[in-house]
Amino acid sequence: MAINLKTAVVESREQRLGTIIGWHGRASDLARESAYARGGCDGCGGSDGRKARRVCELKGPFTQGSVCSEQMVECQAGNVRNAVLVQHSPIGCGTGQVIYNSIYRNGLAARGLPVENLHLISTNLTERDMVFGGIAKLEQSIRDAFERHHPEAIFIATSCATGIIGDDVESAAGHLEKELGIPVVPLHCEGFKSKHWSTGFDATQHGILRQIVRKNPAKKDEELVNVINLWGSDVFSPILGELGLKVNYVVDLASVEDLAKMSEAAATVGFCYTLSSYLAAGLEQEFGVPEIKAPQPYGFAGTDAWLREIARVTHREERAEAYIAREHERVQPRLAELKELLKGKKGYVSTGSAYSHGLIAVLRELGVEVDGSLVFHHDPVYDSQDPRQDSLSHLIDNYGDVPQFTVGNRQQYQFYALLQQVKPDFIIIRHNGLAPLASRLGIPAIPLGDEHHTVGYQGILNLGESILDVLAHKKFHQDLAGRVKLPYKKWWLEQSDPFLLARASQPSRAAE
Fold first, then answer.
1. How many Å apart are CA 384 and CA 337, to the nearest integer?
2. What value does the mean pLDDT of the chain take?
3. Source organism's superkingdom (predicted)?
4. Residue 111 structural domain
5. Which of 80, 130, 142, 415 is the most exposed place for a label (fewest CB within 10 A)?
6. The whole model's pTM is what?
7. What's the total number of domains in the chain?
């Protein structure tokens, strides 16, 4: 663990963790190449003794579509209540505000919080600003944000444009913080600085750790647990309530005060290590708030271990064991029915990396076959570097291997061949763009808009019910597949290797 809060710029995932966005093979091979054993691979660089192992990476000649770090800052810092996010960027970088506003409002409603619109402002950089600089626009936008919304904090998202022209965002933030009397937090998230959007999560959390979290809390709340999440429904309160604990949800939908009091908590957990790794490690390193180092709460094995570790850290072992026993007994009858109904069905998971590991575990609890998965990136190690958080190895050790395991940053042109390799009955997905292609192949998708839908023991049953629902509509997708044409040439559709172009351009770095 080595998080450096002395600088305003977060270290990218590929520098810090060895993150990759291109790989194809068996999940067990990827776990062996990365995991928590260090070293190098021929032609791919090595370890510097501190950072994660470097995994051989397939690098394609072009990118058809993805998102960037700034957009993740938009959906994190932009979703903090009583705060404003100023995007120091051309107006086009703010197009995500439309969909995130809808998600934000729905999330507030689901949590029983007052529904409102996002508070986001763009500095609307133009060609003239690219020549002469945009600091004056930034300063005016920050003052406008303060006058309009009277926020408790203002976040600043940088962009590729500001990175190119070199605007001194930190100096502007520093003197305006003194002028306005509230935190003005620069978040360095230029899209070109990192090849995967998850660095944007870290950029937001870095700024929060530096300037929002209370440095010297007057007291510790031994019943409070930080839950790092997105917009999901409140499933953690009833689960942790069984242990006599209460929840502090961060970062999305949190207030500035919720973020400030994270240093007062007894522990920190998350629903996905991709999202929670940096903030949880930083809270432990800088503020002494223990990060729960256990498998994620998916399936029986993960949820059991997760609850027991929370109980150990918070000294609630007896209550945890009683709750675990009750829940096992409660869900088993319906689980047995679902397994019978889903016998012989084949699923495919296409989400963020650590979240995919958890979803595959839940599918296998339901007796669903999972021969393949596409994860949008892969972190060989998380910030704690604790092997108990090795979610990929946990999946393999408890639920078996995944023979067609792919790392790729949401490239549609590759998805066709991936689905042809395993021919699933349905896919599970959270990000837009890939589900329509699957539908054109006659494969329905379960869009997990609520990321907490599969958490814990009830989450196993929830996913089983969702699979039954989507399979009931499979005829629609089959009819659609018989009446549409894919936008690819016959030559490409006949290829069995989705990474053919990458292997052709970099044969020495191919991961078999």
1. 39
2. 92
3. Bacteria
4. 69-211
5. 130
6. 0.93
7. 2
